[in-house]
């Protein structure tokens, strides 16, 4: 059990009876929640962690076999929940973590009371006339090639695109630093797992009440994706945010906090 604490850099704060588990997105770590967590510390117990391969996790625990698909990340989340003997949690996941959390809730529904998905996508690739995910296969191939050939170049290209708040250059720089500090090989593998995934077939199995927070003008997840998710996820509410970009918990923490608090 102790190895999970260290492996996933688990951190517990706050004073409440109910527990919120925060799960970070691709290329990030638990520090990305720093502008959000203070608003919840007095009423809730907060659990933060890093997926293996991200942040200050134990990189030696990473293997392509375990983390070559979503199941390894789902297991990381379930391991952290099991370590702390939690049930009935409120899960808040950003980006790829939204689907990781959803898959975990399908596997162990009794552990989850409510979910908040920030910038979620069940599939990033377009699929003919039927589905608009925002990316063509060639876009993802180019992205993965760029990560392989010039990792820091990829980070400096991706950060401003994803943050999409040019009037807040310091946030873009922080995100760029987060990208660059990650292990290039692991990050590229995580990118491939993320951007080539398709979880549309699992949406019908998810039953936990869910708030979908969809940013306006998100270069990673277009508005059509939020609408698709809301349509196919039962017990879901969709809120279109004024926030632009893919990281509203960083660029627009007040709006993000207000929407989450209102839902809870």
Automatic annotation (TrEMBL):
GO MF, any single term: hydrolase activity
UniProt keyword Nucleus present: no
InterPro entries, sorted: AB_hydrolase_1, AB_hydrolase_fold
Keywords for the protein's UniProt record, in alphabetical order: Hydrolase
Pfam families associated with the record: Abhydrolase_6 (PF12697)
Family statement: Belongs to the AB hydrolase superfamily.
PANTHER family: ESTERASE-RELATED
Protein name: Sigma-B regulation protein RsbQ
Organism annotation: Paenibacillus typhae
């Amino acid at each position: 059990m102790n190895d999970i604490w260290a492996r996933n850099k688990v951190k517990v704060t706050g004073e409440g009876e109910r527990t919120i588990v925060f799960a970070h997105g691709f290329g990030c770590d638990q520090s990305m929640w720093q502008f959000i967590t203070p608003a919840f510390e007095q009423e809730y117990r907060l659990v933060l962690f890093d997926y293996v391969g991200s942040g200050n996790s134990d990189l030696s625990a990473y293997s392509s076999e375990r983390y070559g698909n979503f199941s390894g990340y789902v297991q990381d989340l379930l391991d952290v929940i099991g370590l702390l003997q939690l049930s009935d949690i409120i899960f808040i996941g950003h980006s790829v973590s939204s689907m990781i959390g959803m898959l975990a809730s399908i596997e162990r529904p009794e552990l989850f009371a409510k979910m908040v998905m920030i910038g979620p996508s069940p599939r990033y690739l377009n699929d003919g006339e039927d589905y608009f995910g925002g990316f063509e296969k060639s876009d993802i191939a180019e992205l993965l090639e760029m990560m392989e050939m010039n990792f820091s170049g990829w980070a400096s290209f991706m950060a401003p695109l994803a943050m999409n708040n040019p009037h807040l250059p310091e946030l873009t720089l922080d995100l760029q630093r987060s990208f660059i500090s990650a292990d290039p090989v692991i990050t590229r593998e995580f990118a491939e797992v993320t951007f080539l995934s398709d979880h549309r077939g699992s949406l019908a199995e998810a039953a936990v009440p869910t708030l979908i927070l969809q940013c306006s003008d998100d270069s990673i997840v277009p508005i059509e994706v939020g609408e698709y998710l809301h349509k196919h996820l039962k017990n879901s509410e969709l809120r279109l945010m004024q926030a632009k970009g893919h990281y509203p918990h960083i660029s627009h923490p007040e709006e993000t906090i207000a929407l989450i608090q209102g839902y809870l």
